[in-house]
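2024-03-11 09:14:02 DEBUG pipeline.ingest accepted 1 chain
2024-03-11 09:14:02 DEBUG pipeline.ingest length=290
2024-03-11 09:14:03 DEBUG pipeline.predict start
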Amino acid sequence: MPDSVPQDSTKSKTNPLMFLVAVLLYPIAITGRRILGILDHTGEVFYLLFDATRWLYRGVCTPKYRLGKSAIVSQICRIGVQSIFIVALVSGAVGLILALQLSPPLDDFGQRDKVANIIAVAVLRELGPLIGAIVLTGFAGASIAAEIGTMVVSEEIEALEASALNPIRFLVVPRLIAATVSMTALGVISSFCAIVAALLISVTMLGISYETYMDNMLTQAKQVDFITGVVKGGVFGTLIGIIACANGLRVSGGAAGVGRATTYTVVECIVAIVAADLVFTAIFFALGLF
């Protein structure tokens, strides 16, 4: 029998240098992929906002494209009215905490009555709309994303398009309007509840008279503080509505996709709200509105 042919021993071997380069470049590749994904998703959100604004303009200025008032009112009731209690509860608790936490440091300087000054400015400018937005994100933002995502999974969006009904006009615009209007009102309610709670605890436990508290608060707080809080509330509501709708519309993968969209909505909304708050604070500081 002929001798067996020896097997080919020229198999490709891993180059140590190439392996090292791949290991070093892997974090860069992952980071770049994440950055590109974030930019892509941000572009989707802004395009959806532009499209929704276009339909809103048509609905206001063109009789042919009317907005569904009943849909907007029902969304305001679901998003805003049902959130009032929890926003008031959280804001009131924060007002109590602020008053109790500020009292000991101010006692060291004999300025306990200045609790009213600090709370009025902090709540009207920052904490009122910020607390309301965070609560609304968990209460309504996740609900919007899950609702629209379920419609995508069950092919209801495709049914709307097959019926020549634009989903942006009939689904996104009412929820965006409702979130913006509701958050503007909830920001005011949140600030009011925090200030009232701080007033009650200051009068009953901290020994600050009602007249002193009100005089200090009205002396320190200005109209611009209230206006900046209202503007922030409206912008925060727009961010919550558009991010929730965008995540809902991009759902894929069935029930697991709906769960991911809900989680991403809460995280992205909170990050966007804090970033927007930072931008607003920098702008107002540069303009000398503080």
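2024-03-11 09:14:41 DEBUG pipeline.report The CA atoms of residues 133 and 270 lie 8 Å apart.
2024-03-11 09:14:41 DEBUG pipeline.predict end
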